[in-house]
Amino acid sequence: MYTRVFRFAPSPNGYLHLGHAYSALLNDDMAREVGGRLLLRIEDIDLARCRPEYEAAIYDDLAWLGISWQRRVRRQSEHFDDYEAALAKLEAQGVIYPSFESRSEIDALVAERDRHGPWPRDPDGVPLYPGRGRKVTRAERERRRRAGEPFALRLAMDAAVARTGVLTWTESGAGPQGQTGLVVAAPQMWGDVVLARKEVPASYHLAVAIDDALQGVSDVVRGQDLFWSTSVHRLLQALLGLPEPVYHHHRLIVDAQGRKLSKSTQAKSLRELRAAGATAADIRRMVGLGR
Length: 291
Ligand code: GLU
Fold this sequence. Notes:
Blueprint: E1 5-8, H1 18-33, E2 37-42, H2 52-65, E3 70-75, H3 80-92, E4 96-99, H4 103-114, H5 138-146, E5 152-155, H6 157-164, E6 168-171, E7 181-184, E8 194-197, H7 204-214, E9 219-223, H8 229-240, E10 246-250, H9 270-275, H10 280-286
Parallel strand pairs: 1-2, 2-3, 9-10
Antiparallel strand pairs: 4-5, 5-8, 6-7
Bound molecules: glutamic acid.
């Protein structure tokens, strides 16, 4: 029998809050409802921000919430070779290139472009890559890489889209404007996204596309803030010949000011709520999953 596979994929760069609890509980509920499996993935490619004590707290908080997940847990930092293999495939297709501008050079280029009318931003509000990395000759790229210069590997978006043609995904939740059912992917809104850097062989987009495929994930259930990222994931899946999961983007838990919970908005962690006497059933009620 075909078993559906769900996953919860937190980054261990802080303690889990109610937003994470909602996502994890919803994944667990949906998996149970269809007799599926729930996997856990630790998204720790950004080694500078991730810490072992946050990872330990994730296991503890999830167990306290009554969630059980299948072993083994996939920890992204242990699979850099998988991401490198994918980058080699994309390189062979001629759809990635290194760019060598520093962050401040990019900022200056954006400021310059903005003077001629607003330079486009991606769905997260970050300016699209304005640089000329694609124009750098092969010999020059090789020379700079051999010299040890820092670089970012970027997707040549137009070339990638030309290879795959129009892509769609099946949305069983809803996007920020209520999009549901068959959604047309719009990866161009991200420009030439970064897929890896000299010191980190994968960005979020690359790692998530590879891991969902390698873990056999059939159902991606995650927050609405990642809705448009799905366009990039679908593009990478098509380029790399990976299967296409069904997507379910869920509402976000917001604070009294309507802001998405995060460390920067000082959202209370599950551990703080627990220390203050909350039970797992209280957490369920607080995120609107109470029975
Ligand atoms: N690691 C991401 C986060 O914590 C979630 C990635 C995903 O579900 O695709 O926001």
